[in-house]
Every structure is written in C-alpha cells, then in structure tokens.
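Re-run requested by the PI after the first attempt was lost when the workstation crashed. Everything re-entered from the original request form. Ligand of interest: flavin-adenine dinucleotide.
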Amino acid sequence: MIEITLKVNGQMHRVSVEPGENLLRTLREKIGTRGVKQSCDYGGCGACTVIANGKTVYSCMTLSAKMSDAEITTVEGLETTHGLDPLQTLFMEKWALQCGFCTPGILLSSKCLLDSNPNPSEGEIKEALAGHVCRCTGYIKIIEAVREAAELRSRK
Amino acid sequence: MPETSVVLPVFKPQRYVRAKTPEEVLSIMQTYREKARIVGGNTFLNELAKRGLLSDVEVLLDIEPLELHHLKDEGNRVVIGASTKIEDLAHSPSVKNNAALTALAEAAQNVHPVQIRNLATVGGCISTGVPFLDVPVALLALNAEVRVVAKSGEKSMPIDRYLDMSLTDYMADKFVKELVVTLPRGSYSSCFRKFGLTGFDYALVNVAARTSLDINGICGDASIAVGGKGVELSRMKEAEAVLTGKPLNENTIGAASQKASDTAKVEDDIPLRGSAEYKKHIVKVMVNRALAETATQLGVKNIGHD
Ligand SMILES: Cc1cc2nc3c(=O)[nH]c(=O)nc-3n(C[C@H](O)[C@H](O)[C@H](O)COP(=O)(O)OP(=O)(O)OC[C@H]3O[C@@H](n4cnc5c(N)ncnc54)[C@H](O)[C@@H]3O)c2cc1C
Ligand code: FES
Ligand code: FES
C-alpha cells in the first residue's frame, strides 16, 4: 500500500492506496464522495469525471498513487455556503437532467469550461462535453443550461 | 439466452515505484522486464489492464520525479519532455503558431475528449504499439528525433525507428526522455487531417503532411505520413518523390495523393472498419486535403480538393 495525501473539495485526506488503484475507487470507497459515478470503467462515458488540479480527468483510469498532493473537486464540492452552484440550479430549472447519473461529471466539465472560458461558443461547449454520454436528455437542454450559466456569470 | 460472463485475469501490481533517477528506471525495467511498466497518463495501460492483458505486471514505474514536463522552444528546435500532456502540446504557442509545426498541435487537438488529453503523455502516446494514434503520425511527418535513456547513456533515434520498435517489441533497455523537433530552413507549411466514424473516434485514417516552397514556386521538400485502423503507420516516400522538385498545384498534389493511396499498406478487415479498397480511397482523399491545405498556406492560389 502507498500513503497519499489528497485535498478533496477543500479537505485534506490521508489514505492508503494499492499500486494499481484508480482514483474512482479511492474517492468512492475511501473518501466517500459517492457523487463520482462508475459506469463503463474504460473511458467511454464520462460519469467518473472529476477536476484534478484544475483539469477534468476520467477518475476510472487515473492512478491514485500518481495523484498524491493533488487538489480534487467532485460534485459534492460545487455547493458552497451560499448554496448550490448556479450551474446546478440551472440544470434543474432547464431540465438538463432526468435520471441524473451523468450529471455530476457533466457539471464538473461545465464548471471547468466556464472557469477558463467565461463566454464559450456552442462549439466550445460541445467540445468540452464531448467526453460524456447522457442517455436521457438528448444534450440540447444541457448545452442551453451551460450557455445560460455563462450569461448569468457575465451579468454578475 | 443465459448470460455468459468471462472472468478476466486481474491487474494487481504489488509495487509502485516513484523513480528518482533514470538509472533506477532502467535497473527495475531490466530486472522485471515485461512485469514492470512505466506509467505515463495510464490511459492506454488502463485499457490493457481492463482487458485482462496486464495480469502479470508486478511493478508500476512512475517517472514523474524525473520532471520531464518541459516544452522548450530553443529557436531552431522544440524539445518536448516525455511527461508533457497532450493538452499542453495542443495549446503550446511555439508549436501551433509555427507553420512548420502546426501539424503537431493539430494532431494533439484531435485527441478527444479533453479528459484524455489532460492525462495522456507524449512519451506514452509513442510507446503504445498501436498504429492509429494521432500525435505519432504528425511526429513522423515532422522528422522528430526521440531521445531515449539507455544503459550506455542518452541516445537519439529517428521517430520511425522508435515507432517500429514499439510496434514490435517490449523495450526493457530504454525509455523516452524527450522528443526533439528541428525546424527546417525555408518556407514550410504543415497540416494534420483525421478521418474517423465520428469526430471523436480513433482514426480510420490520419495524415500529416509538410511541404516547402522556394521562391520559384518549386517544392524542395515534402513529407507525408499516414496511419489508421488497419493502415500501416508509415511515411509515403514514393508519394513524397512525386512532389519534390515540382510546383505545388492541383495536378501534382492529385498525383501524389494517388501514389500514397496506391502504396499505402492497408488491411482488408471489417473489424478494423472496412475493406482495403475503402481505406485506400480515404487515404487518397485525406492526403489530398492535407497537401492542398499546406499549399494554400504557402500562398498557392486556387487549390481545390475532393
Ligand atoms: C477514451 C479514450 C479516447 C482516446 N482517444 C484518442 C484519440 O482521439 N486520438 C488518439 O490519438 N488517441 C486517443 N486515445 C489513446 C491515447 O492517445 C493513448 O492512450 C495515450 O496517448 C497513451 O498515453 P499515456 O501517457 O496515457 O500512456 P500510458 O497508458 O501511461 O502508457 C502507454 C505505454 O507507454 C509506455 N510508456 C509510457 N511512458 C513511457 C516513456 N517515457 N518511455 C517509454 N515507454 C513509456 C507504458 O509503459 C505503456 O506501455 C484515447 C484513449 C482513450 C482511453
Ligand atoms: S467510468 Fe470512467 S469514463 Fe466511464
Ligand atoms: S440524465 Fe440520465 S444519463 Fe443523463
């Protein structure tokens, strides 16, 4: 086992991981952030997406041992003392989710996009979300919600 | 029908070594051979592991402490460390804003999705042993050199040799330290084009091309590389010869594309996504598009393509 330190949603955690363990398992089973979803387990769906040091990655193929000292954001970290992130509220209002299984990953990719590109074009939104599969919404509502979140941010 | 489930051999390495020196990497690789694997972004290894192909691996070798994340613009060449992420290569101003190197940035931008570009490394992407990845094709067309660390010291080798070795062998005696792409003198333009079943697919065919034009409008130097699913990853030397010493126009580019199609080695294989005839057609179209784009960039007017 290898001892690593992870800062998850602002909190420090010291955990022991196996050499071949992936971040998905560490986060779900050892840190308890169950918002990180497992589906395909090989890079085909995006449900396991988290933000690691400011960049989106698939946690199902990220080696935990390699992530020592990384800062991780999962969907649980989007909510602040002021309440839900506007992206979360807009996803609900705009019907950008139905079953919700894909939603944590898509929210994190959307957040990462808006943090680096506050006014993305539709093409840029599609590119940022291309690594996600949603079996319910048909994607249009998701793109609309991200657009609207960008507009809301620019009005603030 | 009852469901049949296949139990795959599990991936359960026992050691994780953060190698502090190149010597440590080599010594572990020589002791454990196939049972030790260097991990870059783990995006390819993960795929092998989950298919049950890495059950005998005992040691994972993390080369992060060697700090090979550099992407240095040295004026006449660009030096790219093995641990550089594909995403950083895609957006590096030294690469994307230099016409002779654009193909490399375009190839990196064509690795989808961003979650993979954020993990995958340059060293990993040239060491997978598969012929259909995007960045290796561009490196081939740009005559990159691979600087490897071996027991006898550091050595440079042409990218085509390294790729050939990684396609056929497990290399226990060396690992990639960095890639060096030297800038040619003169007026050059380069371009990468990918054809997949969707915009986010692996390439059925990918092409990188680089051409030069002198003041008399003659192409002094042309390089064309192709790869893909069931397409041999290689330079198209005969097609290049069609262009060298000639003007770049619709006729010469058409003839070079035809030659690339005639000489490309393709497999007639439906699991690899299509007949040989189909793939050869796509090679012709994509080489044509890539060459037409480089010619247009070099100021040649009225170049159309199919
Ligand atoms: C969902 C998904 C989508 C993808 N889409 C694309 C795409 O659109 N286009 C594309 O081109 N590719 C695509 N890929 C493939 C991806 O480009 C490769 O998996 C990646 O480049 C491998 O790099 P890595 O750093 O993750 O390598 P790893 O998986 O870490 O390693 C790969 C191999 O290289 C060896 N290695 C690593 N570093 C070194 C080194 N320094 N010296 C010697 N050997 C080394 C490892 O031991 C291993 O054998 C995709 C992959 C996935 C999972
Ligand atoms: S679970 Fe990671 S991409 Fe599907
Ligand atoms: S909301 Fe059900 S998969 Fe996207």
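Saved to the shared folder this time. The first helix of chain B runs from residue 22 to 32.
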